[in-house]
Amino acid sequence: MALASQALQFQLGEDPAVAILKKVGDILDDIDIGGADVMVGVFEPPEFSKTLGGIVVPDAVRKEYQYQGITGLVLKMGPYAYRGEKTTNWFLDKDNDPNPIRVGDWVAFAFSQGSSFLMRKQPIRLVNDQHILMRIPRPDLVM
Question: Which domain CATH number covers 64?
Answer without folding.
Answer: 2.30.33.40
